Give the backbone structure.
Amino acid sequence: MLAATARPPSAARAAALEVLLRSAVRSAPGVEDLIEEQRRRLPLSPADIGLARELVGGVLRNREWLEHLLSRYLERPLPSGARAVHESLILGIYQSVYLDRVPAHAIVDDAVRLCALHRTEKSYQGLTNAILRRVTRENRASMLPGNTVAWPMKYSIPEWIASDAGESLKDVDLEEFFASQNIPAALQLRAVGTLSAEEVDHLAERIASEASFLAGFPVEVLRGRYVRECFEIRGGGFQPEKLPSFRSGQVTVMDEAAQICVQLAGVQPGQRVLDACASPGGKTAALWDAMARKGSLTALDVSDSKLVRLKDTLRRLRAIEQVQIGVTTDLFHTMERDSFDCVLVDAPCSGLGTMRRHPEIRWRRRPIDVADLVETQSRLLEAHAPLVKVGGHLVYAVCTFTREEGTRQVARFLARHGEFSPAPAPPELLFDATPLQVSPGVWRTLTHRDGCDCFVIARMKRIG
């Protein structure tokens, strides 16, 4: 066993371990950014990156159950200083239970070698070897969570999130909802520009051809359930940057829920529009297209660093010259009251509706975070409401399902502001928003029902 440590572990598993160790830090970048850091640091092939992404995502989506399985083999918990050993064991158990094409010897040997990378934890090589040999001899089916396992553990949902969902989604099958949050999201794109239905059809055909060529086999491209300019690529296993239509700015990555948000805003050509929390720029560009690139669009965010991504997005989509961009503190005081036809406040939120894309969120968020975010959201609504002119609209959106951030936040704002009232969906909307509506002027997308992230969107009209 010790001689085997002379050869380093696979680059993919080494990267996955480092990402898991860093992702536990609440202030760390998102998992995709951490994987990109590993790509720059290690000699990772595209296949290695794919495996690392599968390992990290799989562990984060199934951690509660994996921890339960590990506890069966440990006489006592590992000390806090042996985190690399702990995560190596969890990685090994995940591969043995959930991935049926990984040889047992590769799982065991690489876990032992991963321990050797962390000098203070070499003494655990024997324990790691013994535990994973036992695990790999088990029947896989017997180690998967059965029907008797409660859904919070089955889908690794922290207790406080499960409790909040029970209060916030009373009319929803929670097990079905969280099962959908544990399925990695398919790639969804938005057609850029103002296109006719025929042009959108032709673009869909082109994307399917490009994706199939890159994948080496036929790739299915589905249309959005609600937004006609939305495309969903099923399979392929490549990054969107590989698509010629992406590089040329004909499409951009955007979840259909975010596209629905822009559609419900109902902006028109020639209007004056403000995107108050604009980075990374997907909704900003979509608003500009919805305005037929005519009128005035201002995009703000709180720092220059956030505006870097916004500018990159608008530059690729050839909208950088037309949109006024700035730091909130620099431009906000120059804006006149009662001057915007539409203000979009896509507010900072817990992001719990994006767990299928960002599985680390469930482990980083705490109940106190939601309370703090509710205060921030309230301040943003208060600050931007005076900018909306009579007859104009204030649109509030969060990519989460918590009631405090969503429906209750909207209700509290309306109770304070009699000059605003819930507004119906825009009359020119190209889809029926009724299935999404939870109350007058408020809509909610649900992953298991709508195939997109979970958003709450409110549209409020200033009437006085």
User: Anything to note?
Assistant: The chain has three domains: 3-143, 187-253, 264-462. Residues 97 and 300 are 46 Å apart (CA to CA).
